[in-house]
């Protein structure tokens, strides 16, 4: 870490300074975060131990749930604790670590969503070649590449953050550390860094969203040649993925593809994709997926039966 900074810690202002609203924030986001942990861990355990969820789609869903759990954990606990604390102080090193974790697991979620779209494209548009193209070794390599890509992206983000010089004030008008709110506090010209931020995070969000929507358009267009039952199953799966893509990428594009200006809704938009989306993903992928629900029932019924014996 750089040692030439007069600011060694920051104060996070959180979502609100109103004591009554802070209690509401604590209750609401404690429930959201608990639901995120329970829902995603349930999916992780079910896919890990189920004999019926061995397809590439569930292999990728396993890693999406891991990414979502870690992504939410990088921000939610501090928001929850901060809502009942007199002052939320975060050290400079902790702030940099949070930025790294936020972008590592956020970008991993993006890359896994892309891999899930690729999997659906091959399954629907090239069904005969699917077992060969999406074999287990290929899926493992793709996940490794996704982790490497995420690490490169988050490293680029942290290098940009480390270039910022802070000499006061140290009040971050946000509930977490990220480059956008930190740019406002830097006592230096941040024009170039903001351009690099937009080019890095903004480009990843925008291009990924565009590619995903094009791929799902191609998939849905190709369904016209399938049977009614095949169309229904494919539509159910693709609809779930499209909902997740829109919920996640909409807020990301809003935050990372604009000049360094702030809006009153910025914090709530960030809350939606850092805490809201990881909470909704398990609901979307389980409530709309009969295979996952059946696997959960079988797994937990076997566990309960074995324990009763």
TrEMBL record:
Bilayer disposition of the protein: Multi-pass membrane protein
GO MF term list: G protein-coupled receptor activity; olfactory receptor activity
Membrane-spanning parts: 24-45, 57-80, 100-118, 138-162, 191-222, 234-256, 268-287
Domain G-protein coupled receptors family 1 profile: 39-285
Compartment(s): Cell membrane; Membrane
A single cellular component GO annotation: plasma membrane
Aminoacyl-tRNA synthetase in keyword set: no
Pfam family, one: 7tm_4
Family from the record: Belongs to the G-protein coupled receptor 1 family.
Protein name (record): Olfactory receptor
